[in-house]
Write a structure and sequence with these properties.
- The chain is an alpha/beta fold.
- It has one domain: Rossmann fold.
- The protein is built from nine helices and six strands.
- It has a four-stranded parallel β-sheet. It has a two-stranded antiparallel sheet with strand order 3-4.
- Helix 9 links the parallel strand 5 and strand 6.
- Helix 4 crosses helix 5, helix 5 crosses helix 7 and helix 8 runs parallel beside helix 9.
- It is globular.
Length: about 230
């Protein structure tokens, strides 16, 4: 009975409204996290479409990556910062998965990103992950994996130490700060595989580079990189 079904849906919506994470408007279908207005204001980079894009240029001559992409430009005080803050500090995992699905769909549509054998979140220190309760990169991976139909592998790369905060450091200082801070376990599982390494925000690329350097001796391993946001200096 369509009328009864609609009545029940409207009643549930009245008591349990589903608001836009961006602006708070109560206009969303059940599976959406952002309204059309907020989606249209997100600063998409479209980097996934182009070889030699600004993300890939960061790693030229330093890392052999198949392809690299950041979904959005990062700007302080803008919607994308608000959404990332919700993910990292307000336990809003749903927005992380939602943005991960957007990222995954664009990777798939681009035709430039081979379907990975594994989607791999950039590892956090155990202390930091315990304090937060989760790794935000893993949450993003859950959204990507849903689209790419690739398993998440989160235990083969670990942080061996907690570096100082990167916020006020220049590129050279950032690289020195994170050098040697990753280690690989069960490397044979990665031999001959293609992985998509995922993080939330890319700035200088120093942390991703340090992670990739820990993987460089694994035979036949190929790496692509994807982040939600691009804040390169």
């Amino acid at each position: 009975m369509p009328l009864l079904s609609d009545f029940l849906k409207n009643a549930l919506h009245l008591f349990y409204p589903h608001n836009c994470t961006g602006c708070g408007n109560d206009l969303l279908p059940e599976k959406e996290m952002l309204c059309l207005s907020c989606l249209s204001t997100l600063p998409y980079t479209n980097f996934e479409k182009f070889t030699g894009n600004p993300v890939e240029k960061i790693f030229f001559g330093r890392l052999a990556v198949l392809a690299a992409h950041s979904e959005f430009y990062f700007s302080k005080g803008q919607l994308i910062q608000q959404l990332l803050h919700q993910l990292k500090y307000n336990n809003n995992k749903n927005i992380g998965r939602y943005l991960g699905r957007i990222l995954g769909n664009h990777l798939l549509e681009s035709g430039r990103f081979l379907r990975p054998d594994y989607v791999v979140p950039l590892a956090m220190s155990a202390k930091k992950e315990f304090k937060r309760g989760y790794n935000q990169a893993t949450i993003i991976c859950e959204g990507i994996a849903e689209v790419l139909h690739a398993p998440i592998l989160s235990s083969n790369i670990v942080r061996t130490r907690t570096p100082e905060t990167q916020t006020k450091k220049h590129r050279a200082e950032r690289w020195e700060n994170v050098e040697g801070s990753f280690a690989v376990t069960n490397s044979t599982q990665l031999e001959g595989k293609h992985i998509l390494l995922v993080d939330d925000v890319l700035t200088t690329g120093a942390t991703l580079e340090a992670c990739c350097n820990s993987l460089k001796d694994i035979p036949g391993l190929s790496i692509s990189i994807a982040t939600l946001a691009f804040a390169s200096k």
